[in-house]
TrEMBL record:
Organism (species): Romboutsia faecis
Name of the protein in question: Ribulose-phosphate 3-epimerase
Residue numbers binding substrate: 7, 65, 141-144, 174-176, 196-197
Known role: Catalyzes the reversible epimerization of D-ribulose 5-phosphate to D-xylulose 5-phosphate.
Cited Gene3D superfamilies: Aldolase class I
Tagged with keyword Lipid metabolism: no
Family matches, as InterPro entries: Aldolase_TIM (IPR013785), Ribul_P_3_epim (IPR026019), Ribul_P_3_epim-like (IPR000056), RibuloseP-bd_barrel (IPR011060)
PROSITE patterns: RIBUL_P_3_EPIMER_1 (PS01085), RIBUL_P_3_EPIMER_2 (PS01086)
Cofactor annotation: Zn(2+); a divalent metal cation; Co(2+); Fe(2+)
Involved pathway(s): Carbohydrate degradation
Cofactor note: Binds 1 divalent metal cation per subunit.
Length: 218
């Protein structure tokens, strides 16, 4: 079954806990925390302090998507803040294998993200080491962008590679996912679904979450 990971980028930052409790109460499994540094991506969001504050009141799996340069310098801080999964970008890591081992040394899950233009081949040799691969289905930086259709074949390629190696690696998709295209990404092989604007900008969060699950299981 799929796991739903609402992205807090589309929440109201002035009412962050209130908004996060809405998605927790609606049964979403992961909280997708978009961390941006204004260098790796042209936007700035939040740091470990905000994560630590949320951790006290939220029981969801904290899934940190680090869109930052030099992620190694911040991994311990995000672990201490209470993250359960840390995802780094392949494009931001000079020594990706080392960074993954660094994350895993804290006994949490490690993931690697790929921008739309980055080939699957670039992570082939670390696939055994990660718990999750994040296929960006938009260029990172902003919520509310349109899904890039060409990513469907990329998800299928990754799923094929994972299965051919007999691995148990989650495939997360992030960007432009809505109730009306969730089935396409699930059929291609994705099982962890990030959705920002589709969930937080909806009138009724519970209904939208239920619709995501219903459509994903068609
Ligand atoms: C984009 C972020 C996404 C974003 C998704 O860089 O990584 O998590 O919030 O937002 P939607 O679902 O609105 O495309
Ligand atoms: Zn994200």
């Amino acid at each position: 079954m799929i796991k739903l990971a609402p992205s807090i980028l589309s929440a109201d930052f002035a009412r962050l806990l209130e908004d996060v409790k809405k998605v927790e109460n609606a049964g979403c499994e992961y909280l997708h925390i978009d961390v941006m540094d204004g260098h790796f991506v042209p936007n700035i969001t939040l740091g470990p302090g905000v994560v630590k504050s949320l951790r006290k009141d939220v029981n969801m799996v904290f899934d940190a998507h680090l869109m930052i340069e030099n992620p190694d310098s911040y991994i311990k801080e995000f672990v201490d803040a209470g993250c359960d999964i840390i995802v780094v970008h392949q494009e931001a890591c000079k020594h990706l294998h080392r960074t993954i081992q660094n994350i895993k040394s804290y006994n949490i899950k490690a993931g690697v993200a790929l921008n739309p233009a980055t080939p699957i081949d670039t992570i082939k040799h670390v696939l055994e080491d990660v718990d999750m691969v994040l296929i960006m289905t938009v260029n990172p930086g902003f919520g509310g962008q349109s899904f890039i259709e060409g990513m469907i074949s990329k998800i299928k390629e990754l799923k094929g590679l994972i299965d051919s190696k007999g691995l148990n690696v989650d495939i997360q998709v992030d960007g432009g996912i809505k109730p009306d295209n969730v089935l396409d990404v699930v059929k291609a092989g994705a099982n962890v679904i990030v959705a920002g604007s589709a969930i937080f900008n909806s009138e009724n969060i519970q209904e939208t979450v239920d619709l995501f699950r219903k459509n994903a299981s068609k």
